[in-house]
Amino acid sequence: MAREFKRTDRVGAQMHRELAVLLREELDDPRLGMITIQEVRVVRDFSHATIYFTVMAGDAGRAETTRILNDAAPFFRHELGRRMKLRTLPELRFVHDGSVEQGEKLFSLIELAVKSDSDKHKE
Prior knowledge:
Number of domains: 1
Distance between the termini: 61 Å
Strand order of the largest sheet: 1-2-3
Shape: elongated
CATH topology: GMP Synthetase, Chain A, domain 3
Number of helices: 4
CATH class: Alpha Beta
Order of helices and strands: HEEHHEH
Helix content: 40-55%
Oligomer: single chain
Radius of gyration: 19 Å
Mean pLDDT: 86
Largest sheet: 3 strands, mixed
Number of strands: 3
Strand content: 15-25%
């Protein structure tokens, strides 16, 4: 019987929880806005992990937040090493997750199309 979850998924989920706590309690940078970790993807050999996040900021704020988080990646890696029992800890790379913004744009386009269609059928 195959396992329901891969080990990389379990490690990614644990890293997700630990990073959320670290962002909330340990990282004290006034330049950072409200950051939400969306997903952590760990490659099979545990050499790299990509952390997808969203932030309440404009385009310039997103780029700045990405830079700050990637600069702080060694700190996060060190803290994760203290909190998690892993033989090798992956290199961390933070990437802004644009799927929320894309979803909002798509939703507004659908609303616009529905409104336009209902206006046409009223006449």
